[in-house]
Design a protein that fits this description.
Chains A, B: GO terms for molecular function: transferase activity. Chains A, B: Keywords: Transferase. Chains A, B: Pfam families: GST_C_2, GST_N_3. The structure is a homodimer of 215-residue chains. Chain A folds into 2 domains: 75 residues, Glutaredoxin (3-Layer(aba) Sandwich); 123 residues, Glutathione S-transferase Yfyf (Class Pi), Chain A, domain 2 (Up-down Bundle), CATH 1.20.1050. Chain A contains 7 helices and 4 strands; from the N terminus they run βαβαββααααα. The radius of gyration of chain A is 17 Å and the shape is globular.
Chain lengths: 215, 215
């Protein structure tokens, strides 16, 4: 292992951590991982706050100092530092299309699933938003989030009727966010892909069997 | 003008359009712009839906076909196609830091301002989220959004006590999102930078006089 290898702090139960592990596995690179036990609230420990004062995972500690948080920022570092198997596009147009579709998966899919969970779970009372600040849950958000997830399924089904992968012909980070969102919705909101969305299901059957999806 | 020049659909009153105009002006590139009149609901016209079925601005229509929406995706295209005056970082580490701080400005600042506005304004009843779907306003979100904006001011003030620009030593897209957020909060929520946050104000005084801020 080169001495300039970064270290990823992550948690098995964190969907955002899964987005990064999936990305790393697709690239076939070897990044040491340090598990953070969210069940034991280790993210609020002094030791972890010294790594990431925002008490969030994932976080990528670079060998030369800075700690990178936010999935998009960690992906950007890894894509630039390890260019093999590009997952964020290869041309100006494909990079833009990956950014656009990845963001749509996140804003229309991942974010509402997270919002639906965090505003509902009793254990997250007063912690409706991740991060260092306390925010009350808002119960009306739970229903609105579920409407948004239903619309996400329909919109992405329409998209996947015309393309093999979310951003087009090539597997990309947009597929990673979409797959993690589907599994997160099924597990946490009990909202699997609706049976009528056969194009979405075709895509899911193809992408979910990639070995990297189990990372 | 080269025949492969894209066209930007945008609106003067749209803070997301301003993020793109600001970026273009910083790069000093010449991108033709087509105004979309949001006051007249032109974004819902058949003509504009043919450009962007999601009825949102900004949108960048590329000469070779695809229409790119989402600010981050438009920025990515412009950064790759017009590499002069990089605004998304230059090394793996600085690219990651720009992505991280830009996202923090957006998630902790820009998004709550938008949420506070869209869930409050009578004219946006049933349109609490931008895009093709109808969502009811949730009045409790207005207060929670304002709390988030207050925390954003405090957190970014702390950051700007130790760095010249949001992402570090260099002006970047993170400064663009932060400046647009500050003006949006002041105008739409009547929340200017609190007087005690002198580091944030020092940064604002420096960045807001760049000619590109008026684009």
């Amino acid at each position: 292992m080169a001495t300039d290898t970064p270290v990823l702090y992550e948690s098995k139960g964190s969907p955002n951590s899964r987005r990064v592990r999936f990305f790393i596995a697709e690239k076939g690179i070897d990044i040491p991982m340090k598990p953070v036990d969210l069940g034991a609230k280790e993210q609020f420990s002094d030791a972890y706050r010294a790594v990431n004062p925002r008490s969030q995972v994932p976080a990528l500690a670079l060998a030369d100092g800075p700690v990178i948080t936010e999935v998009l920022a960690i992906w950007r570092y890894l894509e630039e530092a390890y260019p093999q198997t590009p997952l964020l596009g290869t041309t100006a147009t494909s990079k833009a299309l990956v950014a656009m579709w990845e963001r749509r998966a996140e804003l229309d899919g991942f974010a509402p699933v997270m919002e639906g969970v965090r505003n509902a779970v009793p254990g997250l009372k007063g912690r409706a938003l991740s991060g260092p600040h306390a925010y009350d849950q808002i119960v009306e958000l739970v229903e609105r989030s579920k409407q948004r997830v239903a619309n996400f399924f329909a919109d992405f089904n329409e998209r996947l009727e015309t393309v093999r992968y979310v951003a087009g012909d090539e597997f990309s980070a947009a597929d990673i966010t979409t797959l993690v969102t589907v599994d997160f919705a099924a597990n946490a909101l009990k909202m699997p892909i609706p049976a009528e969305h056969t194009a979405f299901q075709r895509w899911y059957d193809e992408v979910s069997v990639r070995p990297s999806a189990a990372a």
